[in-house]
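Lecture notes, unit on protein representations.

Consider one protein chain, 116 amino acids long.
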Amino acid sequence: QVQLVESGGGLVRPGGSLTLSCAASGSIFAIYTMGWFRQAPGRQRELVAAITGGGSTNYADSVKGRFTISRDNAKNTVYLQMNSLKPEDTAVYYCNAPGKLASWSWGQGTQVTVSS
């Protein structure tokens, strides 16, 4: 069972930046596509960015050009650099493998609040 631990959230003003980290246990991390998801109050969890084991990336239209996903397979860690943050980016952010949602548990997430 892979354990996922997210960190790096906080309160930031509109236009600010944050970098989130997700540490995963287990030696098989490198072969999976990993993603960052977010869930705002009253809304469904959505996938905002994904990265394959080889480093190919994909983004939701709402964050394209502002967020950058990356990974360090040697450290079993995936990152989300978030720039030009907007109030609508406020949510709890989670990482997981989009192809393993039926078997990998969700971590506790990290709260990101964008407010002046």
